[in-house]
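Researcher: Let's do a round of design. I'm pasting the structure tokens now; please hold your answer until I've finished.
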């Protein structure tokens, strides 16, 4: 859990909301998208310890189909990887990192160094709109 400056926390929560809207459109009615912005505990998962990724997608039976963690430029780090990303990746669900476009290479290299299996998706904020693309599998 990164400690962010207020501006970056607002960006983080804004990206979570935009991703929620996007994934609800893609997943249609067969999936549920639940978010845990700003340290909320709306839905937790885990075998031994309950964790609260930013976005959890479940099917109609409530089975987790993927988890997404949103990072800002300041939270793409070795520390985040060791404390949070590794734990999320080890849960056994498809794990996605949604990172600023400028941080994609760093996120991929950190995942490789720490043996974290993740799919890295980038976002870019332009004129108040969020563009998401560039899927990299690590």
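Researcher: That's everything. Go ahead.
Model: Designed sequence:
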């Amino acid at each position: 859990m990164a400690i962010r400056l207020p501006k970056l926390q607002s960006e983080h929560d804004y990206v979570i909301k935009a991703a929620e809207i996007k994934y609800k459109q893609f997943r249609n009615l067969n999936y549920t998208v639940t978010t845990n912005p700003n340290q909320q505990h709306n839905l937790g998962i885990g075998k031994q310890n309950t964790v609260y990724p930013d976005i959890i997608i479940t099917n109609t039976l409530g089975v987790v189909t993927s988890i997404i963690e949103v990072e800002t430029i300041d939270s793409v780090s070795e520390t985040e990887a060791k404390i949070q990303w590794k734990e999320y990746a080890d849960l056994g669900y498809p794990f996605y990192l949604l990172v600023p476009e400028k941080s994609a290479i760093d996120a991929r290299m950190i995942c490789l160094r720490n043996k974290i299996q993740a799919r890295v998706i980038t976002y870019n904020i332009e004129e108040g709109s969020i563009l998401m693309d560039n899927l990299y599998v690590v």
